[in-house]
Amino acid sequence: MKEILPDVERWEEGGERVVVATVVATRRSTPRPVGSSFAISSSGALCGSVSGGCVESDVYERAQEVFDTGAPTLVTYGISDDQAWSVGLPCGGEIDVFLERRDGDEPLAPAEGERAVLFTVLDGESAGGKLLVPEDGAPTGDGPPELAAQAAEILRRGKNRLLELDGMRVFAEWYGPPPRLLVYGAVDTAEALCAAARLLGWQTIVADAREKFATPERIPSADRLIVAWPEDAIAEVAPDAHTAIVVLTHDDKFDEPALIGALATEAFYIGALGSRRNQERRRERLLEAGVAEEELGRISGPCGLDIGADTQDETALSILGEILAVRADRDGGRLRDSAQRIHAEIA
Fold first, then answer.
1. What are phi and psi of 132, to 5 degrees?
2. Which of 181, 269, 335, 342 has the highest local Cβ count within 10 Å?
3. Could you tell me the domains of the chain?
4. Which is it for the CA torsion 38, 343, 89, 121, positive or negative?
5. Residues 179-190: pLDDT tens digits?
């Protein structure tokens, strides 16, 4: 729903009714991930997509029935080889699409930047019921209140999910700010990393104790610059499970406290630039400093994927590729050699 929210709000403010179709489950290869939405206004305006164009015409027709009856419906679209170009998915996958008419009083979304889960009941007597559970605040909506107990884990994972609870299917849609990238070390690679991460819509933060390095002129792509020693910078940012940390300084007096500080957080990725020889030396020093052996396994060093990167921009691409792979719990190898589905189920 996130991607179509501005259009839906505009239509409703103009007095129109809206039907929203949302992908609540996928199987095998599919064009669009779970959570993708397609909206139809009562005047016939469209926005969003559930399949990249494969089934939208049929969804539009079904939406007219939902406009008339007000009853939500769950539709499955699949395909077999002998009907590859009929209504369905030529890619061979299968999607479940939930259509519902909005009547203007349902919870729509949390405040911008706020973390929350929007639960939607897909079947049974409560079909269409919604419960919005913010990270900090009381639940609102007419969905079963017991759904609120599921929110904490979904907020931590940051993924949309289809839940089956006591015979009831519920779609949980995660809302929150974009992931954050914290880079310690305002070097050339930091600027390349920030420029690449901003293309993904991530928030980028660069910290360095050297004031002459951490300047807008040197790092124009950083959303935020912090001049501070590693411990203070990490305390100020307070990395959470949606934060990646990359250490780039090549200087023990910065690298080691930055990594020790990063390991004390819930950051989903911790990377350190440097040669294998330097990584081994740093590993020994961290062990001497009291870092547990199992904790060292959280550090990706040398960080990045093995793509033969040479330039600063290529190195940044390599590191960001590994960050994305870790976030999706993937190995980062070649797709043609992988048996896993192409698209990861990430919000």
1. -100, 120
2. 181
3. 1-104 (no CATH), 115-177 (no CATH), 180-327 (3.40.50.720)
4. negative
5. 999 999 999 999
